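ugh finaly. both done.
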Amino acid sequence: MDLVHLTKRNRDGSSGTQKNRQRGLTAMAAELKHLGYTLKTARSIKPKHINALVEHWRDTGLTKATIRNRMSWLRWWAQKVDKISILDKDNATYELNDDRTERTNIAFSLHPDQLNALTDRHVQAAVMLQAAFGLRRQEAMKIIPKDAIKADSLKLKGSWTKGGRPRTIPITSQHQRVVLLAIRQIVEDGSLVPTERSYAQHMRIYERQVHKAGIARAHGLRHKYAQARCEKLTGMKCPINGGPDRSLMSEDQYELDRQARQRISKELGHNRIEITDVYLGRLQQGGAVSCS
C-alpha cells in the first residue's frame, strides 16, 4: 500500500504510464514477499532486494529487454524514496547488456576456496547442488534430498520449483553422485533449510555467505551447468564459448544441437527452447559470435 500511495503522490508521465508503473511496482512487492522478503515501507528497499528480483526474473525466462524496462521502474522507486544509490546506473552490472551489441558469458566454475569459505554447511550444500545440477537457489534450498535422489536422476517436486513444475534431472557423472552423497550426510532426512530457521531467515544467511565467499552471481553456476551439458550432448562448444555458428554445421549437427537445447531447457525448468540462448548463445547464420 505504501507503494500505491507513492505512485499516487508522484504522477510522472501519462495516465497509462502511471497505471503501468503502479501495477509493475505492486507486482514487484508481491514477488519479493514470495521470495521471502517483506518490506515494511517503500523506503525499506535495499540492494539485496534488487538482486533478488533480477535473479528471479532471469530464472523465470524474462528477456533482458523486459528486465531492463522493469529496472527503470525500480530506479523510479528508489529515486522517489531518496535511495537511488542502491542501484547501479549501468545495466551491465546486472548482466543486462543489450544483446545486439554485446553478449556476456557469466558462467563460472566453483573454486574449492569459494566452497570452503561457505561456513554454513546447509548453504555449502545448496551451492554444491546449484553447481552440479544447475538448480536455482530457491530449489537448492527447498529440496529434500532423501525424496529427490533416485538411482539415476534427481526428481524435483513442484513445491520446490519455480512455477510449480516438477522435473527430472539425470545423474550423468561420478562428481554428481559424490555431491549427492555429501549432501545426504549434511542434511540426513531433512531439507537444506535447517529446522531452526524459516526460509526467509535462511535466504538472508545464504546471501551473506555467498557474498563473503566471493560468489556474487551464483546464477552463473547454472549457466556453467547448461554449457557443460551442451558440450557433453553435442560434442561441440556452444556459441557463447566460441562454438560453430549455423553456417558451419551439418544438418546432423544442427539437429543434435536443437535436441540438446530442448533437453537442457527441460532440465533447467523452462518451457521454451529459445531460453537456452541466454545460457548457450544464439546460433548465428554466419560470422563470429562475440563472447567475453
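ok and the 2nd:
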Amino acid sequence: MDRKFDFKKMLLLVSPLLAFAVLLVPYSWANQAFIVDWLGCGCPKMDELGNMITPDFNANDFTSLFWGLISLCVTISAVLLSRKISKNKWWLRIVYVVGMLAVSLLISYQFIQMMMWN
C-alpha cells in the first residue's frame, strides 16, 4: 500500500508540468491563426530609406511572455505542492521547487525557440 501511495504522490508532484503538454497545441494554433496577424512577426522591417526598424512588441515577445507566465504558474504550483513532502525534509522541498523551476524554464525555452518567427 505504501508504494502505491508514494507513486500517486510522485504523480501529483510532477502534475504541474502537464500544463505544458496541454497548452502546446492550442497556443501553437492561436499563434499561427491570429497572434502573428495581431502583433506582427519578429521579422525586421525596413523604412523607405532602407534602415531597419525594430518592432516594439511582436508575436515573439508575446510567446516569451506567455511561456514565462506558464513557468511561473508551474513554480507556484510546485511551492504549494511541496507541502506534500515531509516537513522534516525541508532540503527535499527546496530541491523539488528548484528542480521544477529549472525544468519548466527549460521547457519554456524550447517552446519559445520552436515558435520563433524570424
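summary for the 2nd one i guess: The radius of gyration is 19 Å.
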